[in-house]
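yo, Nascent polypeptide-associated complex subunit beta is done. seq:
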Amino acid sequence: MNKERLMKMAGGGRTGGKGTVRRKKKAVHKTGTTDDKRLQSTLKRVGVSTIPAIEEVNIFKDDLVIQFVNPKVQASIAANTWVVSGSPQTKKLQDVLPGIINQLGPDNMEHLKRIAEEMQKQVAAAGANAQAKEENDDDDVPELVPGENFEEVAQETKA
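structure:
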């Protein structure tokens, strides 16, 4: 074959058409709703039913509270399954506590007292740590006093 003709054919290489390799993997486009649909179908099999008129759900975790305002609540008592869906807000226990004290029953008051005692211990420990830190600050360089020359004082103490 002619070298020029071969280079001309190679330069005008085509993509696609007869004799080209097929694409092996088809691109699959997933939507975000498939997970939600699958979850809802699984919950339907468990037998959950929607509980209406719930204004707020608080989930307590250590000293944090995960709070849902106007959530969608579904439950299946037989399967011991509760589903709370909505937009959560994470707050500190101290911020939420005044608003939920009237919602707590007598059995939860003992638990609340224990939490309050633990918080007081943590505050006391933090205060003790701050005081110990202040005592350790003696190693720092003292502030300058106007009108005094420390070199003269140091020479006087040596003499």
